[in-house]
Write the structure tokens for this entry.
Amino acid sequence: MTETEDRCGYVHEDADAAPAGWECPHPADGDERCVFHRPAGDGGADRVAAAFEAAVAAGESDPRRRRFYGATIERLALPPGTLLAGDRSHAVDLADATVGEIAVDGATVGSDLRLDGATVAGDFDAKGLTCFGDLRCQGLSAASVDLRKATVDGAADFAFATVDGSFSVTRAELGRLALSDAEVGGTVNANLVRVDERTEVNSAAVEGSVLAADATFDGEVRAMGTSVGGALAFTDSAFGDGFNGNDASADHGMRVGGPTVFKGVAVDGATDFRYATFEGPVQFHPEQHSTETRFDGAVDFEQATFEAGFDLREVVFDGRLYLADATVSGTGRLDGAELDRGATLDRTETSAAVSAASARIGGQLSMADCEFGGAVAFDGAVVAGEIDCNGGTRDGATRFGSGLSLADAECRSGVDLRWVESEERISFHDPETAGRTTFGDTVDATGARLDDGLDARAARFDHLAGFEAVRAGGDVRLDGCEIGRLRSDVSPADDGDRPTVTAHGASVSEGRIAHPGDGTVTYDFADARIGRVRIEAGDGPIAPLAAVRFLGTSFDGFRFGPHHGALEAISWRLHDTETDADLPEPDPGPRRLETTYQQAKTGANGVGDATAAAEFFRREMRHRRAGHAADVRSERGADRAVAAYDWLANAVLDATAGYGERPSWTMLSSVVVVLAFAGGYAALGVPADSAGELLLFSFQSFITFVIGPAPAESFSVRLLSSAQGFLGAFLVALFVFALTRSVDR
């Protein structure tokens, strides 16, 4: 019998992975077919295994013998320890084969093992397999694939494979892993796997979960267009060259039905989740894991959809974090995260809260053109770069549905809030902590709409705090702030709004404040320190200072000069306003008012404003008199008498000299004294031919201490004359004092 006559008559016609027209080189075993191409079940498993080993061994000299294209085998089972293709030369190829079950666990294959296009009706069991070449199973169909503890020096390639059940490479050591375009009906287990080169799962569809705890991926992991029905979990895994879930195309975004878990991972390259859809929560928070979650390169979630929020707490991002154009339906958490190169959230839309409490942000934080439905909080965060909420354009301004909080934050650069809109309060203050928010550069909220106002109490603005053209529905709180330069021009957000800008106890070195002039906006600088600040008003009937309250305020460089006319019109009153604002301490006591005008006088003297200083001194003294009157009503005994004397002395000094600020009042008082005493002398019968002589006598008595006593006969006249002389000397001295004081001013 010739070689051709002894050979199997099978010709591979229905080709998929193997070449069409291939003729089987194996010897026939009855019915002109070899044991590999007989109907399934014709040959026993042991007989098939022995023939398979013999054929592979013969392939060392005849490579054709290692090809089993289109084979039909009920069960291919090799005992553990079996060595195939020890020469490591030619591949063992079962392309397009149909096998009921494969069991090669513990076997060793010295060359490539190929099952491209093969169909395994049952399980493909390759636990502990050692393959010195590639394990190529492209287009494979199997009930399950088990490569636990397998070692494959080359690629474990299951691209386009269909696995009805689970796929496991747990504890396997692989040169490269490929599952691109594969379909897995169960779970992909890759716990403790090690892959030396790339891992490719592009466009794969996994109905179950992908689990890769403590795995090591030295090469890039590519998962572009991958769909995972369950969880995607890489707990405590290491990525040597990044994770790529997208190739910049919306058609190739990942879809994960369950949780996406990257807890405790270390990723050295870039991580790309662009266009991904996360139906379950995204969990990167290490929680109780001993290792941190760290991404060495950029992490990109551009246009990703988070249907259950994300938890990136305490994650370390050495590269920049991108969440631009993302849609977040659940809570987003970045608390305690380290973002060394900052973050981009431009055009992101959220429906729940986003929190980054105590985060450390090393670069710019960009949040332009966002729609935040929930509260946004960076409480206690340290931000080295600028916080940008508009991208430099009015159209790019962000909208905060539930407010923005930067309480206790350290913002080392500027904060750009121009044109933003916030339905709830923007807050830089937490009343429950003793910390304070600090801004190392400009904070600019020009053109912002703050429906519930702003709470910046106790904040420190090292440079500009800009609130120009701000529309506020609630109060703007600057109490206790330290402000290098303040620029504030606040108006009501809607008709009926009456916002107050409060700066109780604040320190403002310089700046400009303005109000509409119609009484709708009030400024309250109670107990504040005001430096070189200009005050302006709109075209309304309320003068600039008439909408500003100074109570207990210290003035350090503030110039009253531009406001003399307006102050004179309101009798130099600083402690109340002409608006209907409901201010705290609406009826301050006299001692409080005395201190207020004493400090105003000191401030006016400091800038050489003698006129304002004089008027504030008079105000100070009158409120001191009111304090004495209050003491008279409240004290008893000697204290009451002392208070009464102080009140009387104060009143006399006011009436006769305007507290030394009105020398003309002293002259008028002197004339009144001369006239009054002239009447007294007439009543005592001082001889005089006319009223003029009585006036002359009274005038001489008035200046007794100057030119000597006037002639008088009776004791009563001499007594009255002496009293007038004493009073005259007092008034003369008082006039000299008042005149000198006015000249000095």
In short: The chain has a mean pLDDT of 90. The longest strand covers residues 460-472. DSSP finds ten helices and 73 strands in the chain.
